[in-house]
Amino acid sequence: MQPTGVLETSKATNPLKALLDYGQSMWLDYIRRDLITSGSLKKMIEDDGLRGMTSNPSIFEKAIGESSLYDDMLKSLASRNDLDTTARYEQIAIRDIQGAADILRPVYESSKLHDGYVSLEVSPLLALKTQETIDEARRLWKAVDRPNVMIKIPGTAEGLPAIRQAIGDGINVNVTLLFAQEVYEKVAEAYIAGLEDLAKRGGNLKKMAGVASFFISRIDTLVDSLIEDKLKAASDPKQQALLKSLLGKVAIANGKLTYQRYQNIFSGPRWQALASQGAQTQRVLWASTSTKNPAYRDVMYVEELIGPDTVDTMPPATIDAFRDHGRLRNSLSEDVAGAQSVMDNLAKAGISIKEVTTKLTADGVKLFADAFHKLLAAVEKSTQQKDKNA
């Protein structure tokens, strides 16, 4: 039974670990070699209730470019003339993903394949290329060779058929770069259709899992900037009050309404036919949960989106903050009518959520591609240095 209000916790209670009492799994949005080799990851599983991990090229770029943790592998790869820079990066990433997956394997097994996953992203340069994304998802899935891995595929228009195909092939998928409720519905449809394809082929649905990564704080960052621009031009007190009431509210409202769609989609006869074969729902995963505006509470995007059958992936700083002063309540289903009112008022204020989410998706594709180019440059630079020193 899920708690209905604020959980009374003692000072000895770790709020991170207590998230599971509300049906939410905490994942780490970060990966680095020393987490795996030092025992830190294992300690987070034991002490914080960590249930999984996500990675992306930006995270790997910082790990490789800002530390000496990969010197051993970079040195060995420097002499590999058969590998280009992308292949060298993949060798490094796959080693870390495999190591993390092995440490999380007990979580995977004890949760009956519900948690314990590590995500590895297809090249962001393929975000608008369907067949190439399918081919890369298959290749990475085979290369990592761990059942508790998810391949990250962006929820672009071109990514949707790739998502369905990968799931139909029996590949666990983390759909990334989601902002719009309507796009989320298409992603959920791709997941369900993929499971149906897999079932028709005689695949085992019990072994499948997936998440839909819905980005949060980036929405407020953009919407708040649009609101501030409108406030500068607004002279009507009522319009000013309306605009001010929306600051820092849209991302959470959008998330709550997305969760309502999740609950509606994963019910009814079509879903029950799959659930009867052991299929798991495609849980909503809250991503981009660090607070960008210092005026807002630093754990706001965690505290306001707690609810059953969800995942929250947090960067290290947000994990530390929530461990220290996070407050727990079943917030995700609170005041859904109020969330809808926020979205209605946003439209009244002259801001189109569709235009916002379309821009964020396009910007996200570019940011991920830029990060990937920067990552490859870091690998190339480090490899050349190791080659010279060999």
Word description of this protein:
By secondary structure, this protein is of the alpha/beta class. The chain has a single domain, classed as TIM Barrel, CATH 3.20.20.70. The chain is built from 17 helices and eight strands. It has an eight-stranded parallel β-barrel with strand order 1-2-3-4-5-6-7-8, surrounded by eight helices. The chain is globular, with a radius of gyration of 21 Å.
Q: How are the secondary structure elements laid out?
A:
Elements: H1 15-18, E1 24-29, H2 33-37, H3 40-48, E2 52-54, H4 57-65, H5 71-78, H6 85-110, E3 117-121, H7 130-144, E4 149-154, H8 159-168, E5 173-178, H9 181-200, E6 210-215, H10 217-233, H11 237-246, H12 250-265, H13 268-275, E7 282-287, H14 300-303, E8 310-314, H15 316-325, H16 336-348, H17 353-389
Parallel strand pairs: 1-2, 1-8, 2-3, 3-4, 4-5, 5-6, 6-7, 7-8
Helix pairs in contact: 4-17, 5-17, 6-17, 7-8, 8-9, 9-12, 10-11, 10-17, 12-16
